[in-house]
Amino acid sequence: MRRRDEEARRQRNAETRRRGEKKILAVKLFLFSIGAVLMAACQPNAAIMNSAQRDVPVPLPAANSAEKTLSPLERDVETMRTANFDYIYVYRRKDGGVFDSEDKLFIKNNSPYETNRRILTDGDKAVIAGSNTKFKPEQIKILEQRFNVEDFSKPASELPADAAANAGNSGNAVNAAANNVNKMSVNR
User: Fold this and answer.
1) Count of CB atoms within 10 A of residue 122's CB?
2) Which residues have C-beta within 8 Å of that of residue 118, sequence separation ≥ 6?
3) pLDDT of 95
């Protein structure tokens, strides 16, 4: 009797295992068929793909040749103009040499605090500074003593109306704020 019970239990276990394997196989087959349908549905439309190639304008050779003739310096100055800086200055060493760290620090220290961007270009022989704050005449004189300075700023007619009135005043605002901080720390 015991033997029959064990045999019956084995048969039930084997049947249960077969049913489970059949269910797993059915789920796998179902997932595979859904994946195949999705893959077939996600193929690109050949008509759309071909029309995109026809609609692409072909650039004119004259436009490309004009871009290729720009030197790195001219390209970087144009980048500054595209960034919409009001004042753009190019500095070169008077001896035509490469800028070193002292030269770059000198330019940084003698430019307005608000100078937004400086680019080293033309084989490290030129620095381009872009700002929306006008340089004070004394700053330009100091820089001209050490460097050749070229002004690529916007014409006066394109500058904001308050540019001349605010020229150099931003430094006074910074100094005033610093003085207020010092007064507050002294009064405490």
Assistant:
1) 19
2) 104, 107, 108, 111, 127, 128, 129, 130
3) 92
Is residue 116, in this structure, part of any structural domain at all? yes
Average pLDDT of the residues of the chain: 77
Mapping DSSP to helix (H, G, I), strand (E, B) and coil, where does residue 167 land?
A: coil
DSSP single-letter state for residue 156: G
Tally helices (H) and strands (E) across the chain.
Answer: 8, 4
Say yes or no: 36 and 111 in one domain.
Answer: no
Side by side, the strands of the sheet bearing 87-93 are 117-121, 126-131, 87-93, 147-151
Q: How far apart are CA 44 and CA 52, in angstroms?
A: 12
The band of 59, judged by pLDDT with boundaries at 50, 70 and 90, is low
Verify that 28 and 91 share a domain, yes or no: no
Q: Which two tokens stand for residue 131?
A: 């700002």
77 shares its domain with 151: yes
Global model pTM greater than 0.90? no
What letter represents residue 148's amino acid?
N
pLDDT tens digits for range 107-129: 999 988 888 899 998 889 999 99
- Rounded to whole angstroms, the Cα distance separating 157 from 83 reads 18
Q: Is the pLDDT of residue 173 over 50?
A: no
> Looking at the structure, do residues 88 and 129 belong to the same domain, yes or no?
yes
CA–CA separation, 8 and 131 (whole Å): 91
- Which phi and psi (to 5°) does residue 119 adopt? -125, 130
